[in-house]
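User: Can you model how iron/sulfur cluster sits in this protein?
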Amino acid sequence: MNAISPNPTQKYDLSFARWVRDNIDGGERMNMCMQCGVCSGSCPLSDQMDLGPRKIFQMVRAGMKEAVLKSNSFYQCVSCYNCVVRCPRQVPVKYILHGLGRLAVQEGYQPKSNVENARFADAFWWSVTTFGKTDERLVTAKYYFSGGLMNGIKLGLGNLKTALGMIKTKRMHLGAPHKAKNRGELKAILAKAVEIQARHEGEA
Ligand code: SF4
Ligand code: SF4
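Assistant: Here's the modeled complex, given as structure tokens:
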């Protein structure tokens, strides 16, 4: 993805669609969308989204950058891939939505602290880079408390029964986190991946 997308001074930015096509993963197929609505109709979270995927694509085409990037839809997506497998025009809906969501955070349309997916991704990445594994207890705790102390306590208490049930049935262990062997090698691989991604973004 480019460092920065077009920054319009007018409300309708007609270069936005072109920018999405050239810089967002899967964006080159967005023009294949025929507005059938199968994606929105198949999405289990569409009633939580302020704009469904079909509407978002049409708004991108209309250059409504600001309205699109202020949408909450990107962060409701749970990556179930229903839209991807059902789209009759092979538009990679989910990938485009995630790219737009990332852009919205990157350009300040959505504060990262308000975006659940971004906060969860941070917690997940922390666990992988620290332990070489995802420790479901620590990832959950870090994610819960990333929204503030009271938010963490409230979410923790709300899920206490589930957590105790998982411990009882040995689906969640107690004690120190499991750690991968050769974490140094894993860290080197991850650092290389970050370097390659940064290089690609610089070339885009
Ligand atoms: S299912 Fe595909 S073609 Fe239909 S509205 Fe969604 S993206 Fe467009
Ligand atoms: S991948 Fe996301 S947008 Fe697509 S159907 Fe699933 S939840 Fe909805």
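A couple of observations from the model: The pocket of iron/sulfur cluster (ligand 1) is lined by residues 33-39, 53-54, 57, 87-89, 91, 93 (CB under 6 Å). The chain has a mean pLDDT of 88.
User: Helpful, thanks.
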